[in-house]
Amino acid sequence: MTRDSDDDGLSWGDESDPTHVDARVDAVPRVTAAERRARAAASVASGGPAASGGSATAAPAGAAASALLVTLGVLAGVYLLYTVGWVITAQRVSVVPADAFDVVMARLRDGLAIAAPAVWFVTSLLLTRHRKPAVRLLWLAVGVVVLVPLPFVAGI
Amino acid sequence: MSENSVTTAETTASRGIRPSTLVVAAGFGVIYAYYLWDAIRSLVVLPELYDSIGVGRETAPWTLLIAGVIVPPVVYLLALVVGRRHTLGGKALILLAGLGLLACMSLGLIALA
Questions:
Q1: B10 lies in some domain
Q2: Of A86, A73, A144, which Cα lies nearest the Cα of A115?
């Protein structure tokens, strides 16, 4: 059976959607063998089938991972805007340099300022790989505060 | 096993800085020093300029001028402190990010002035 492809664009696909991609499996906390045995023993003792405890604990972890991903996406957007802000600021600034050295350093300053948001974002993400999400977000938040393109925001 | 590697890392850190780290820190240090020198130059030249155009040196943005001198060494030291447990590449990235911050502040000041 073929569905109307125009209608497909108006709704979110579910698991039956051919383009559906499952979230990363490793976001789900691993159940150790000991826990599994304990759970099996408990279900035998209570006489019922295994409780759905596994999926109940997996859901919040998956939601947290998704929330983190969305937050990172938003932050990436903010950093991208900052890059645009610094590009425009660098273009607007026109200081008459005194000598060749000043010209080189002015170029370097412009380049560093434009690259700064990207460098901060990549550095924060790369070097906090094995840290808690809160630590990663904290470093990115610090960047959002200190790298704000003030002249651009102030409309100068 | 892991305890051994931790002790080795600690002794290396306490006995001295590795030459490669020193080279990276010094290389970035030169550019950080430029921003310090630039701020000192502004601190000296700008009040004189204010005097020469007759507005008086009291009206110079002293807070910004003094902050400009303090910020580069502070950022440099912070970058070294934050990067001390990272690899050489990590240290270089952190120093580069700090340099980007200085460049943003410098460019921002010029644009706002």
A1: no
A2: A86
Question: Closest partner residue to A109 among B90, B94, B107, by Cβ?
Answer: B107
Substitution target from A120, A121, A126, A135 for chain B, most B beta carbons within 10 A: A120
Judge whether B98 lies within some domain: yes
**Extents of the domains making up chain A:** 59-153
Round to whole Å and give the CA distance between B79 and B73: 10
Instruction: State whether B107 and A113 contact (CB < 8 Å).
Output: yes
Shortest Cα–Cα distance, A134 to chain B (Å) = 17
Q: What are phi and psi of B93, to 5 degrees?
A: -60, -45
Q: Are the beta carbons of B93 and A146 separated by less than 8 Å?
A: no
Q: Is A20 helix (H, G, I), strand (E, B) or coil?
A: coil
The answer to whether A96 contacts chain B (CB < 8 Å) is: no
Whether residue A151 contacts residue A83, with contact meaning beta carbons closer than 8 Å, is answered with no
Residues B89-109, mean pLDDT to the nearest whole number: 94
pLDDT tens-digit series, residues B11-57:
444 557 789 999 999 999 999 999 999 999 989 988 888 888 878 77
Residue keyed to tokens 């505060």:
A145
CA dist A94 and B13 (Å) reads: 45
> A149 or B5, which is more confident?
A149
Amino acid at residue number A135: V
- Note whether ipTM > 0.90 here: no
Distance in angstroms (rounded) separating the CA atoms of residues A124 and A141: 10
Residues B46-73 have pLDDT tens digits of: 888 888 887 877 778 888 899 999 999 9
Please report whether residue B7 resides in a domain.
Answer: no
Please check the confidence at residue A41 and state whether its pLDDT lies above 50: yes
Which domain does B52 fall in, by range? 17-112
CB A82 within 8 Å of CB A147: yes
